[in-house]
Structures are given as structure tokens and as C-alpha cells.
Design goal:
The chain is α/β, with parallel strands linked by helices. The chain is 34% helix and 13% strand. The protein contains ten helices and twelve strands. Helix 3 crosses helix 6. The chain is globular and about 60 Å long. Bound molecules: 4'-deoxy-4'-aminopyridoxal-5'-phosphate (PMP).
């Protein structure tokens, strides 16, 4: 018998949300945007010169990096892009969390963080959210190997004040602090302006939620030029051509349509606020979400029961079978019509 299995890098993988393909389903389980990408993106796809596919894409992803730099008023040298923010975050873990000391993140948070820590053999200590599901900034003041948290946090939707984030960064001058802003456009204030003030700060964002482009897989991170250089060194030691030809131009096209971006965000935020009220009237409780999802719980009906009952009707939401959150459901904000159907089902089920 050979012993090769002793040498395998074994990990418990991240479980992505289901991607069912059921006609007429209402899909509120993976925080996608219910609206299509900007018409400019669709036009860019139509205009795409397919002869370009013969050639490798620009390894620096220049078109996209420059468009991001212009939109967010930073230097191109302060931008790094990747295949979704998952790719960008994984690169950040690999590049910056090497001290051997435990990195810190909340106990209830994006469930990929502990998976990357495990796969890269990075020790970590999770820090409990308080009873209101808020991050306690003081938990991040101790010695550590790096800090990461989403703002707003996921799956709670709770937003942290920028001044509290700045306090965490200030207390950690010798390690890298990553603010994962996957949901920041739905009502938060970005930490981006702080990258010029703190050389240990990285701010990660994505096209998957607010730009309706989860299928294109575009993520990016802002940080000072030295941090971005280190990220590029690791990327070029791994896979130089991460962004494909079509994605580069469609990403840039999306950034050129600020009006559409704002319009769809406003629609989602308006729907979210209405749905918050309607769910509260039905007895649901939830932390105040500033994201494109709500994290809800009902005093009478267990979350798992509701999850399965919704699923029977082809309404998909996300249930996490984990301590502290196993009686909550994460519900993505869909179109008004989708949310009406969701609420109508709940009204009937709960009466
Ligand atoms: N961060 C958080 C907090 C998320 O919820 C997600 C979405 N699953 C991501 C990062 C990754 O998003 P993407 O890779 O689509 O950019």
C-alpha cells in the first residue's frame, strides 16, 4: 500500500450557495443582483472582436485597472484585479498573512475566510460578534497576524462606522487589515479614502452584487502601491492571465455607466426598506441591513422549516446550519415582484 494520501493538502471546502435551474424559481439565495448588467455591458459584448480570443489577454488587465482607477480616483498602481473578489481575497491571504500569528475575523462572517486560512495553513482566531450581531472593535486590538472583516458584514448585513474601522486599522500598524466591501454600495461608506493614510489597509470590492455581474467574475482591491506590487508578484508566480479578454472590456463598460449603477442601487435599496417593514409586521426580527440581503428570524417558526417550505415552492433562500445562526435565514433582495411573492407565501404560511 502506498502512503501518498498522507501528503495530500486536505481541506474542508467552502460550500457555495446552490445554483438551481428551475423554471419560474425565485432565487434569493446567493445575493445576486436581480437586474441585468448595464446596457453598455451588453453593447460591449455585441461589439466584441472575437479575433481577440486568439491572443492572450493583457496580463496587467490595463483596460479594467485604468477604468477602476479613473472611476475611484486612485492611481492604477493602487489597483489589483482578479477573478471575483474570492480570487482577490485568496491572493491577499496568501501574500500578506504569513507571520505565523493568528489572523482575526468575526465568528459570524463570510464562511470562506476560515477555508482560505486552512488551505494556506494560516492560524486564525474568530472573534464573537456581540448579542446584536455587531463587531466589537476592541477584540481586534490584540496581537495578531492580520485582520479581515466584511463591511457590511455578511450574512448579518450590519454596517460598521468608518471611525470604528479606522480605530481597528490604527491599532494594527504592523499587520495588514482587509476590509471586504462586497456589499458597500447598498448604503455604506467605503474605507477607500483611508488607503492614502494607512499603508496597511486593503479595500476589496466586487462587480458581483452592485454591478449585476456575478457571472463575469470580477473583483478588485485598492491599497498603497507597495501592497499592490506584492500582490502582483504573487499573482505572476501563480497565473499571469487571470482576466479574460471579454471580461476586461465588459468590466470597463460597466464602470462607464454611473447612471444605471445608481438607478439599480436605488431600486434595490427602496425594495429592501419596504421588505424590512413588511417582514417586521409579520413578526420577523433582523439586524438593520445595509446590504442587498436581510438576515431574518421568526419567533414561532424555525428557520430550517421555513427554508424547506420556501424551497418546496421554488423560492430559494440561504440557510446556514451553524451555531448561533441556525435559526436565521439570509434573504437576498430581488425585484419588487419577487419580493411580493415571497411575502405572500410567508403571510399564508404563518397564518
Ligand atoms: N465577500 C463577501 C462578504 C461575500 O459575501 C462574497 C460573495 N459570496 C464575496 C466576498 C465573493 O464575491 P465574488 O467572488 O463574487 O466577488
Amino acid at each position: 500500500m502506498s502512503n501518498w494520501e498522507n501528503n495530500v493538502r486536505k481541506v474542508v471546502p467552502y460550500t457555495p450557495g446552490e445554483q438551481p435551474n428551475v423554471p419560474g424559481m425565485i432565487k434569493l439565495n446567493t445575493n445576486e443582483n436581480p437586474y441585468p448588467p448595464s446596457p453598455k455591458v451588453i453593447q460591449a459584448i455585441r461589439d466584441f472582436d472575437t479575433d481577440k480570443l486568439r491572443l492572450y489577454p493583457d496580463p496587467t488587465a490595463g483596460v479594467l485597472v485604468n477604468a477602476l482607477a479613473e472611476r475611484y480616483q486612485v492611481k492604477p498602481e493602487q489597483v489589483f484585479v482578479g477573478v471575483g473578489s474570492d480570487d482577490v481575497l485568496a491572493m491577499c491571504f496568501l501574500t500578506f498573512f504569513n507571520s505565523g500569528k493568528p489572523i482575526l475575523f468575526p465568528d459570524i462572517t463570510y464562511s470562506f475566510y476560515d477555508v482560505w486560512a486552512d488551505v494556506f495553513r494560516i492560524p486564525y482566531e474568530d472573534q464573537p460578534l456581540d448579542a446584536n450581531l455587531c463587531i466589537r472593535k476592541e477584540d481586534y486590538y490584540k496581537e495578531n497576524g492580520g485582520v479581515i472583516f466584511p463591511n457590511p458584514n455578511a450574512p448579518t448585513g450590519v454596517l460598521m462606522e468608518l471611525s470604528d474601522i479606522e480605530d481597528i486599522i490604527k491599532h494594527n500598524p504592523d499587520v495588514i487589515c482587509i476590509v471586504d466591501e462586497a456589499y458597500i454600495d447598498f448604503g455604506g461608506v467605503s474605507a477607500l479614502p483611508l488607503i492614502d493614510k494607512y499603508d496597511n489597509l486593503l479595500v476589496v470590492q466586487t462587480f458581483s452584487k452592485s454591478r449585476s455581474m456575478a457571472g463575469s467574475r470580477i473583483g478588485y482591491v485598492f491599497g498603497n502601491e507597495r501592497l499592490i506590487k506584492y500582490l502582483n508578484d504573487v499573482k505572476y508566480s501563480f497565473n499571469s492571465y487571470t482576466m479574460d479578454q471579454l471580461t476586461l472590456v465588459t468590466g470597463a463598460a460597466s464602470l462607464a455607466d454611473e447612471d444605471y449603477f445608481k438607478e439599480t442601487l436605488d431600486r434595490i435599496i427602496t425594495t429592501r426598506e419596504r421588505v424590512k417593514k413588511e417582514l417586521s409586521e409579520l413578526g420577523f426580527t433582523m439586524p438593520d441591513s445595509k446590504s442587498n440581503f436581510l438576515f431574518i428570524s421568526h419567533p414561532r417558526v424555525p428557520a430550517k422549516e421555513l427554508f424547506l417550505a420556501l424551497r418546496e415552492k421554488n423560492i430559494y433562500v440561504r440557510y446556514f446550519d451553524k451555531p448561533r445562526i441556525d435559526n436565521m435565514l439570509r434573504v437576498t433582495i430581488g425585484t419588487d415582484e419577487e419580493m411580493d411573492q415571497f411575502i405572500a407565501f410567508l403571510k399564508e404560511y404563518l397564518c
